[in-house]
Amino acid sequence: MAAELSFTTVANKADIVPTLDYAPEVAPLLWSKLPGVFWRLLIHLGTHMKVIRYLRRQPFAETVQNNPKFAFKYLSPNYLAKGLSVTEGAACFLHHYKRLYDTLPNRILRQTLHWDSVLYQAAEGDNLLSLAMGMSRPNPNEGEMSLFLKWDGEILFTLSFTIVPGKIVNSESEEILLISRLQGTPGRLSDRLGLAVKTLHRVGPRRLLLAALEGIATACGITEIASVSAKNQVSHCEEFDAIFKYGYDDFFTEMEIGRTSAGFFLTPVPILEKPLSLIKSRHKLQTKRRRAFKQQIQSACAESFQRMCHGAAGAPLTFKANLIQPESESQSGSEPAEPSEQENETLRQHPHLTHTRPMHVEEETIQPVKDHWRVEAG
């Protein structure tokens, strides 16, 4: 039975920035940045006028009215990634919101700018684990949209991304998804994160959110995903360099994802994994289970986003946490299927990658959203 697409308000402790406790520290920092922002605004006044003209459209005008800083965020010295110029930042900002405006119906776009939309959820006893998409917070400079891994409504891990022109990262693609944040929520939620990972076939939160992002890329017809490195992540500092290196450089290097000449990690969609023939026999069954689960996440998020793109009604897909059943032990040692002609072409273009086909999960085929149309308020 069809139901209204689920949206959750920002109303839990992990989502809200405690303004009272931090106001004395943040206020001087904000005031210290104003001269630089004002100077960059004067230098790039023509660019800023283009941004202002575009944001006069609804529902962006409502967002600017409620949050005037929204129109100036790209002027930050560290917007999306360290080293981006104001011109590049403005190009990313405009491209992202033009793409959303052309893709999402007006009603859905308005909701996306104010609430989280649930793409996937899994029940485990009395607990509910969900993947939701919404505006980035608490630091809006680290990406325009975010995917949130939540446990009973509290954010455990965040992947922030923006739809940007491919040339920003020296990609030949017209547009890509750029990851600018891939971090957990600090503090008391670490025990729940461990429980969530154990529940979800021990798939780590980074790989889980990356699978969800692949689903969104598939639904949008975007063929590449890029990510910042540790050094050009906007919150990077030398004191915690090892932590950032572990969270970004080591993670993507382990997945055999290479870097572009601009210093960004870049991979085709779908992300290719190590062949099962190279996996030790005693690990193959668990590897298949994990890959099948990631494929389920990817397909579910693609389907949910596609429903949003068409303004469709429908509740987020809900599964039992242990839905995926592995193949029998006798099948676990079988050789993976041969790559298709299209996958072989991808391998020729990206020789540093290897191939494996994920375990089959019966899902509807997801078609990219190519027909951009609007449902204007009225």
Secondary-structure blueprint of this entry?
Layout: E1 7-8, H1 19-43, H2 45-54, H3 60-66, H4 86-103, H5 106-112, E2 116-124, E3 127-135, E4 145-151, E5 154-165, E6 175-184, H6 190-199, H7 205-220, E7 224-227, H8 241-254, E8 265-268, H9 281-309, E9 317-320, H10 341-349
Parallel strand pairs: 2-9, 6-7
Antiparallel strand pairs: 1-2, 2-3, 3-4, 4-5, 5-6, 7-8
Helix pairs in contact: 2-4, 7-9
Short description:
The protein contains 10 helices and 9 strands.
Subunit organisation of the chains: single chain
Low-confidence stretches: 1-31, 319-339, 350-378
Number of strands: 9
Number of helices: 10
Would you list the SSEs in sequence order as H and E?
A: EHHHHHEEEEEHHEHEHEH
| Outline | globular
Q: Taking all residues together, what is the mean pLDDT?
A: 76
Estimate percent helicity: 25-40%
Radius of gyration: 21 Å
Estimate what percentage of residues fall within beta strands: 15-25%
- Characterize the largest beta sheet: strand count, sense, and whether it forms a barrel: 9 strands, mixed
